[in-house]
């Protein structure tokens, strides 16, 4: 698509094909065994060269290392899939790709275009869910990975296409793109190893994102979690997804599939909680600090839906996402801490106070304060045997410290 593929890409494709042969599979399993035995790279490569040949040794070792990294999110599939460092870095979580596929297919889509497939995470999820998939990427390595990965999983109905997504979306008509009535678009949001904050510099850029949402109503676009709410087009649902207390994905759902204004989704231990609203519910009320402090999940904060789970709890400050109430919260969205002391922020007085209470170990949390939590935690370390959570924040505009006990798990 971009003229002659570069020499490095041609060589990587050749190596990937070699690894997909029976000899390549044997080299990969030997490399995996050496890695599992914690063999250092120099020794492992020397042995691999002697045992499987110089051609397969390096690529097999490289893939074995990527599989090791991929196992945390791809599980057992990781041992059948191929990734380069770059495509693994860009890969989403399969469990979330499965959710996305289920929602697109539930909207009636049969054929889905995966626009920018990389190693094929979304393509695999869509094909597994029963869709016919047109997987598009302008990178020949990505296309080869998607071909080999879908074949390794025995998935059928996948066509891998060399095209520029900008052109495909510009040519989209009658609600379809690349011959499909639904699409997933996951723009590359990194350049030169660094996160690209400006959506106009994503690849494909923001103009292609909005064009897809306008032209193909059954579409899902992965965007940066920090995306400005003002960018979300009218009628498009924005969803923030958190796993393990961090936002891992943000999605825009096209008008043909959107069922809310904003949605927050929390995935924990396989269970999924969702909060959504058809319109901006506005902020939670503000009030004085009470006996309990609640830290909302970041997806709830980003989605602007905090007031929906507040349940009588109030914000400690109009600009700070901490809630407070008279008891612990019974919500998966809120982590609750019992507040034992409320002090104006003063390092010397805080140290003296913690010592007087026998507190020698602290976890520092902060919001709306320039302090560096690890540094402050070190400064507050003392001889006392008790522990506390020290929250540095603003309360009604004033720099304040809330000394808290963590909520016992469960
Ligand atoms: C973030 S990655 C996709 C990751 C994938 N969804 C996954 O979870 O594994 C973006 C992909 O889009 C491709 N890409 C970027 N701009 C493109 C364009 N204009 N046309 C075609 N492919 C493009 C890149 O080569 C890259 O493989």
Automatic annotation (TrEMBL):
<feature type="domain" description="THUMP-like">
    <location>
        <begin position="336"/>
        <end position="406"/>
    </location>
</feature>
<dbReference type="Pfam" id="PF18096">
    <property type="entry name" value="Thump_like"/>
</dbReference>
<keyword id="KW-0489">Methyltransferase</keyword>
<dbReference type="InterPro" id="IPR029063">
    <property type="entry name" value="SAM-dependent_MTases_sf"/>
</dbReference>
<dbReference type="Pfam" id="PF13649">
    <property type="entry name" value="Methyltransf_25"/>
</dbReference>
<keyword id="KW-0808">Transferase</keyword>
<dbReference type="InterPro" id="IPR041698">
    <property type="entry name" value="Methyltransf_25"/>
</dbReference>
<dbReference type="GO" id="GO:0032259">
    <property type="term" value="P:methylation"/>
</dbReference>
<feature type="domain" description="Methyltransferase">
    <location>
        <begin position="112"/>
        <end position="171"/>
    </location>
</feature>
<dbReference type="GO" id="GO:0008168">
    <property type="term" value="F:methyltransferase activity"/>
</dbReference>
<protein>
    <submittedName>
        <fullName>Methyltransferase domain-containing protein</fullName>
    </submittedName>
</protein>
<dbReference type="InterPro" id="IPR041497">
    <property type="entry name" value="Thump-like"/>
</dbReference>
């Amino acid at each position: 698509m971009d003229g002659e593929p570069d020499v490095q890409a041609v060589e990587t494709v050749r190596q990937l094909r070699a690894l997909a042969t029976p000899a390549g599979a044997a080299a990969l399993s030997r490399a995996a065994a050496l890695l599992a035995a914690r063999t250092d790279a120099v020794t492992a490569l020397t042995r691999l060269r002697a045992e499987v040949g110089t051609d397969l040794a390096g690529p097999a070792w490289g893939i074995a290392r990527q599989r090791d990294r991929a196992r945390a999110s791809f599980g057992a599939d990781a041992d059948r899939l191929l990734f380069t460092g770059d495509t693994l870095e860009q890969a989403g979580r399969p469990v979330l790709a499965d959710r996305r596929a289920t929602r697109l297919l539930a909207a009636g889509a049969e054929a889905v275009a995966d626009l920018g497939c990389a190693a094929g995470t979304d393509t695999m999820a869509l094909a597994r869910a029963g869709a016919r998939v047109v997987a598009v990427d302008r990178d020949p390595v990505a296309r080869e990975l998607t071909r080999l990965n879908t074949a390794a999983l025995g998935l059928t109905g996948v066509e891998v296409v060399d095209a520029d997504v900008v052109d495909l979306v510009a040519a989209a008509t009658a609600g379809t793109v690349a011959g499909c009535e639904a699409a997933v678009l996951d723009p590359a949001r990194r350049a030169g190893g660094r996160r690209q904050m400006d959506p106009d510099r994503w690849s494909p850029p923001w103009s292609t994102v909005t064009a897809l949402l306008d032209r193909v109503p059954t579409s899902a676009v992965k965007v940066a979690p920090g995306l400005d709410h003002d960018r979300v087009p009218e009628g498009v649902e924005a969803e923030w997804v958190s796993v393990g207390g961090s936002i891992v994905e943000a999605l825009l759902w096209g008008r043909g599939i959107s069922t809310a204004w904003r949605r927050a989704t929390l995935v924990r231990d396989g269970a999924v909680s969702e909060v959504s609203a058809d319109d901006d519910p506005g902020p939670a009320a503000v009030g004085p600090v009470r006996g309990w402090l609640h830290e909302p999940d970041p997806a709830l904060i980003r989605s602007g839906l905090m007031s929906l789970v507040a349940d009588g709890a109030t914000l400690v400050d109009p600009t700070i996402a901490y809630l407070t109430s008279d008891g612990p919260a019974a919500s998966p969205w809120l982590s609750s801490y019992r507040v034992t002391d409320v002090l104006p922020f003063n390092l010397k007085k805080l140290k003296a106070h913690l010592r007087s209470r026998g507190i020698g170990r602290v976890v520092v949390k902060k919001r709306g304060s320039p302090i560096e939590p690890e540094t402050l935690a070190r400064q507050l370390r003392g001889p006392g045997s008790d522990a506390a959570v020290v929250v540095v924040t603003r309360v009604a505009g004033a720099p304040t410290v809330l000394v808290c006990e963590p909520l016992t798990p469960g």
